[in-house]
Amino acid sequence: MKAFVVDKYKKKGALRLANLPEPELQDNDLLVRIQATAVNLLDSKVRDGEFKLILPYRPPFILGHDVAGTVVKIGPGVRRFKVGDEVYARPRDHRIGAFAEFIAIDQSDVALKPNNLSMTEAASIPLVGLTAWQALVEVGKVKPGQKVFIQAGSGGVGTFAIQLAKHLGATVATTTSAGNAELARSLGADVVIDYKTQDFEKVLSGYDLVLNSQDPKTLEKSLGVLKPGGQLISISSPPDPAFAGELGLNLFLKLVLRLLSRGVRKKAKRLGIRYSFLFMRAEGQQLGQITSLIESGAIRPVVDKVFPFEKAGDALAYVETGRAKGKVVITVAD
Questions:
Q1: What's the CA gap between 169 and 20, in Å, rounded?
Q2: Are the beta carbons of 31 and 23 closer than 8 angstroms?
Q3: How far apart are CA 140 and CA 142, in angstroms?
Q4: Which helix (H) or strand (E) holds 258?
Q5: 8, 49 contact by CB (below 8 A)
Q6: Residues near 238 by beta carbon (within 8 Å), at least 6 away in sequence
Q7: pLDDT confidence of residue 136
Q8: What mean pLDDT, rounded, does the chain reach?
Q9: Alpha-carbon span 161 to 153, nearest angstrom
Q10: What is the pLDDT of residues 216-238, one digit of tens each?
Q11: How many whole angstroms separate alpha carbon 57 and alpha carbon 197?
Q12: Residue 100 in contact with residue 34, Cβ under 8 Å?
């Protein structure tokens, strides 16, 4: 099979197109013929080695965290899917590899593709959908009437999270550029802040939850818009001790992460705010619930550009510009 491989950790490193053997199946695996995949900033960070302390991939490895395709083979332990099923997934960490023609995925990471989406649209959903779901539903437990601030509302996570928060009954505020303000409103944002001309911390107050996806300076400002008892959930930085415990990291790495997050945790505690770091995980059952929301029309995909498979490097470079509205997708096969 053809696949794009990272030969070594390197800033802005090139992807190499290689011919590799078809993946071998474990008992609970599906072999999926990939028809589309999506590009995330996580892909460039993994390629650059930013997560190698907690995700030590050994080069050469295949990038790619979003899959939409058709099941072509199943392991002996598979009960939930059959050959011919159209599925989508975010493969679990250490088993990524969606920039390829085939991938082996554990059945518990997979859900049936929404029947009202094309493969291209479906590929845009898993990583950002699960990130938003785990932040707003699982950790945040957002309830009707609450106020939620979602940063970067025109990005991949933002476009999904706005719709999900609105579906959960929240009043939603977001930041974006003036050119993307109408997109944010069309997704359900009640308050749209132009990050180039307005300071969100001067506009917003008394919020129940902030979903932070930006830099440390923005993270610190976010504390000021929350009410006592509110939650600050970050998907960008810094990891906290609870996250280190979940990953089972060694004592040295636990200490490093404790020190990295010490400042924000201290300030949050002083203000009576809960801080947590979220690194989303693969979860087919949650993806199935997301499928129901998409099929009901509560959430729609937002796809900016579609690149052919051979232009995967160009797709990654485009995502790194930060200008994408929603998701960038790569078509792998018809």
A1: 47
A2: yes
A3: 5
A4: helix 251-270
A5: no
A6: 216, 257, 260, 261, 264, 277
A7: 98
A8: 95
A9: 8
A10: 899 999 999 999 999 999 998 77
A11: 41
A12: yes
How would you write 118-182 as a 3-class SS string?
CHHHHHCCHHHHHHHHHHHHHHCCCCCCCEEEECCCCCHHHHHHHHHHHHCCCEEEEEECHHHHH
Tokens read off for 281: 């995980």
Are β-strands 102-106 and 86-89 bridged in parallel, bridged antiparallel, or unpaired? unpaired
CB contact at 8 A, 99 and 62? yes
Of 192, 200, 159, 160, residue with least CA distance to 176: 192
- What backbone torsions phi and psi does residue 79 show, to the nearest 5 degrees? -120, -20
pLDDT score for 257: 81
**Residue 123: partners with Cβ closer than 8 Å, 6 or more residues away:** 35, 36, 37, 38, 66, 67, 68, 88, 327, 329, 330
Residue type, 210: V
Return the closest-CA partner of residue 244 out of 219, 269, 279, 273: 279
Whether 210 and 231 have beta carbons less than 8 Å apart is answered as yes
- Say if residues 22 and 73 touch (Cβ distance below 8 Å): no
Q: Which of 287, 333, 334 is closest to 112 using CA atoms?
A: 287
Evaluate if pTM is beyond 0.85: yes
Q: Checking DSSP bridges between strand 29-39 and strand 67-74, what pairing results, if any? A: antiparallel
Give the residue from 103, 31, 36, 86 showing the smallest Cα distance to 312: 36
Which of 86, 18, 4, 105 has its CA nearest to residue 47?
Answer: 4
3-state DSSP helix/strand/coil percent for the chain, to nearest 5? 35, 25, 40
Burial 67-77 (b: 16+ CB within 10 A, else e): bbbbbebbbee
Which has the closest alpha carbon to 127: 300, 312, 296, 290? 290
